[in-house]
Amino acid sequence: MAKLELSDIDVAGKRVIVRVDFNVPIQEGKITDETRITAALPTLLDLIHRNAKIILITHLGRPTVGSAADRETLSTEPIAIALNRKLGRRVAHVNDCIGEDVHNAVESLENGEILLLENVRFYAEETDNDPEFAKQLASLADVYVNDAFGTAHRAHASTEGITQYITTCAVGLLMAREIHYLSMTLESPERPYVAILGGAKISDKITLIENLIGKVDSLLIGGGMAYTFLSAMDVSIGNSLVETEKLDVAVNLIKKKDFTESVLLPADHIVGESFDPETESQVIDNVSVPNGWQGLDIGPKTVAAFSERIASAKTVVWNGPLGVYEFEKFAKGTIEVAKQIAASDAVSIIGGGDCVAAIQQAGVADRITHISTGGGASLEFLEGKPLPGITALTDK
Ligand code: AMP
User: Fold this and answer.
1) Measured between alpha carbons, how far apart are the two ends of the chain, in Å?
2) Whole-prediction pTM
């Protein structure tokens, strides 16, 4: 059965649970990045305008169940305050997510009002996907909307279990947007389709690489993960990052026809003497990294080669930085590539916290078609894995 969209359901006067991903960074009670709250606003505004009684569920951090300190530092209360400021209307907060107090708070909601429940991960039953707990959450509402793409790859009580106990379940506007763009790359990408992968390790991205090499026209690999492939090709990599336990996998991958036809690895490097922001650095105009040095960024020749592919692409997907972009000396490759993606006419889809940060650092976020709110979830989606939080909405 097809998933219900938000616009398919009648919400006026109904109690609507929205599972949001408000897993925001909080330091000393202050939210340091509100992106995830802002991303949920379209769904919330739609429900407010259509007179729903809105109940928000989120997780926040990874609390130790029963820890009094975590109950304080990982409470969702500051989020209610931030949401109140953003929406210009009262957002009530309740100190639990199940039980009598919560039911009473829900009962007192007027149409168009919002109630934010306490951190759902204060209960181990959430991540255990406990049916009884899911049933208690479900008892609060008539309708369930999932807008938490960031946790869609987890089968938890508030993302999966709950859908068994509420008849009307729908996809939120943010979730629908994520599904739209990511499905497009899997099913019907406009070509040339270029994927760019970076980050520290290949171990997290092997399935993704296997899935992408048959589908993309070009796969551009940079970052620490490139050195395991270069090492598998018997290229000297000096002290660069290498996953020796994954060399076998890399050796098998590089032999595949799809790999040789589509993958572009770094042809030059910016190297450092040590993993340090102030370390001595130099450009190495060669694929080999000299002894005593480590590759910490892609070099100018590689940037030019990657840029050429990006410029002619119609679809670009990017996950993982191409160097240690946190250190100024080794940020250039990642920032240049971010700018090239922004300058291209391609549909561009960016996932993962580091790439999102790099895009913001480059000042080009407004020229990216879609910035995914779920790093892990977008990776699993692109690997072709079904995400439980999404399939639960379909399989009803
Ligand atoms: P990941 O979580 O696997 O996407 O890795 C992201 C991290 O990879 C970032 O913190 C980068 O600093 C790091 N990284 C990128 N390129 C390199 C490199 N050449 N050597 C070491 N670390 C790198």
Assistant:
1) 7
2) 0.91
